[in-house]
């Protein structure tokens, strides 16, 4: 009995075989699952990828290509292949996977690929290319099992077996009426368990969730995750059944959405490719840094305003970095917790209000606690109790601001319909920098001069 | 035909009904899916929750409780219920869900709940409680469909139907030999399609992935996501089949892991509850702020070292905040991209090296670009070309450091087996603060005095 090796590092065996002849490489490849070869593709060049795809049976080759990460650019690999081989592979792909890959290409390249396909396949893919890739229509697969609600058990089973010849995996049997209007789902289990002379209409479960082609992919993911279903039907405005989105697409969507969240909150454009080159990275990050620079000038204007004070008490510069640094980090903490909470739950107005109140309290306590440490430090090193008091007050005040803005700004953005993760650390730290300097230097001017 | 209402805000209807009598409330509740009631539970008090659970049929009540977010503390609700009602609900739960909830309780409370259950259920749950909750054993469900490899098709179908009486959903039929050794899977589709006189051994697919009870949940999630499977078998060291983990558990794991990543990278303890109270938040965040304070003292020591310079050129204070702020944000950008990349891909040594090189280049270019802006600003406002040059060099140098540490530190941590997300913005910004001040003030001392 052969099980797959769970140690992915073992693809080194293929890497070694790449140095040898095709015969040997082919034998080595047989030991691997398509998704493992897809992972290997991330670390080898385009020429080696082509060589491997050409050696693989077409079913495996198409699976490898559909398993490749978007960032490994399967569409570029596809373009390099011989048109005949390419058409074979695309015809083997599920329509939704083929569409995802082809949609990444220029229009003339898309046309070229589609022209080599059978009329049926080409028109199906052309149809799917019309949908927004972040919608249910863009995610859905148009191959699924459906039976007419009026069929008898025996005929339904025959129909399912007939349709399943073309569909590798199915999790749910969809039920439609004579006009392809969606009527519900039926489980294979219920069909088998039922008596012989039963009709599908008696077995169908109508109380299921469904989505429209333009439903956002995040909503699709939320529904599949909330209702623990393996696939969700996609219908048009008149309830005609058009396709299904399966749980594995949703896992990919969740990973993508989470990448976007973590990037946005850190001031990186959501569409920066993780493994992109430095040019992409500069394009994605420089605009945010320029925004940050503008906000930093704001903070430094506050510092300039108090230049006379700083000239007299130079040690304040040393405390400025502490107050600003602590405020920025406390704000980032409140921001991360709040953004994540918004993305997992729907908060009521009362819950939003309580969240801000909670972060106010957290800021007050954490500010007073760390302010006290700095106060003690100031007493020992600068022997100046009044300076200590100024720092204590500035720290407490700034961490309160950090809590209120870190929680309040993403909640406000959510309420006005803007993605809360856009309230990145860059935006939030502006408040703590400006307010922190203003508090520290303002109090110092009043109390120390 | 009735479909569920997709608009979750509509649970307000239940909220209104809570003001009325039980009869009316019961009728209103019938319109809702268990997972919708679970969401409602997040915004009502414990007393109302109990009232609703007591009104619901036991199958729905148990589903509601299993769908409740961990943070809504279903275990506390369970404790408050009448022991008889509670036992009914727990017996209706899947073993893995029951275990998840009960594991959150104190040992004497666990014993109390288990003592009311049937011997069979209690011992199954007790068995599952032994596994680490972040392992495959902790995630797995011990209820699944399995058939002996030697059965004939007809007997296998009968067996599957018999076992499926107790199991609401199954996606895969597992195959074992006479000693419960795992032999592979068989799809219901293949059984139905096969000829009448076929044996399971001819239909079984042995080439499947499996996990051990102690496999980490992240690895389980990765495998299910990589191989697009609805459930993965869990075996002991001798390959005895013990349970299965299903895709819906994995969706929850992914959400949890992503929450942990975003919290850790922002300097929040990974186990802070998103909807916890201020006491939890202070406990989770204050230690990180104290660490940050220690690193801030380090940065401020650099400032103190250059106090004579600052006393002479007070305007440097204003530029300090710009250099430090920009360095911190650029480092956070590089950190976010790298941490996310590590968590989605396995990077080879060469790829890691290239990542750091890429971030060096990005830092150089973004540093020079933003440094140039500040240089022009310094020329206009401070009429001091030499000061402009100092700032330009400090900005470029600090953004290079930001890139190298933001990418290099998480990669180093990964290599020595530490979670890379622990390289939070708090740790990374220490480098940019210290180095940024050192560069700015050091260069100023050399070139401006």
Structure description:
Two copies of one chain form a homodimer. By secondary structure, chain A is mainly α. Chain A has helices at 12-17, 22-29, 34-40, 46-55, 58-67, 74-80, 83-92, 95-102, 107-115, 119-129, 136-139, 153-164, 188-193, 200-203, 217-227, 247-265, 278-305, 307-312, 316-344, 349-382, 385-415, 425-448; strands at 145-148, 173-176, 182-186, 211-212, 231-235, 241-246. In chain A, a hairpin with a 5-residue loop joins strand 5 and strand 6. In chain A, helix 15 (217-227) crosses helix 16. The longest helix of chain A is centred in the last third of the chain and has 34 residues, at 349-382. Chain A is elongated. The N and C termini of chain A lie far apart (84 Å). Residues 1-9 of chain A have low confidence and may be disordered. Chains A, B: Keywords: CBS domain, Cell membrane, Magnesium, Membrane, Metal-binding, Transmembrane, Transmembrane helix, Transport. Chains A, B: Residues 140-203, 204-260 form the CBS domain.
Entry summary:
Chains A, B: This is Magnesium transporter MgtE. 2 copies of one chain form a homodimer. The first copy, chain A, is mainly alpha-helical and 449 residues long.
Strand content of chain A: 5-15%
Number of domains of chain A: 3
Query: What's the Cα radius of gyration of chain A?
Result: 30 Å
Question: Which assembly state applies to the chains in this document?
Answer: homodimer
Query: In whole angstroms, how far apart are the ends of chain A?
Result: 84 Å
Supply the number of helical segments of chain A: 22
Number of strands of chain A: 6
Structural class of chain A: mainly alpha
Helical coverage of chain A, percent range: 55-70%
Shape of chain A: elongated
Which chain pair shows the most residues in contact?
A-B, 124 and 124 residues
**What are the low-pLDDT stretches of chain A, counting only 5+ consecutive residues below 50?**
1-9
For this structure, the CATH topology of the largest domain in chain A is Tetracycline Repressor, domain 2
Major β-sheet strand ordering of chain A = 1-2-3
CATH superfamily of the largest domain in chain A: SLC41 divalent cation transporters, integral membrane domain
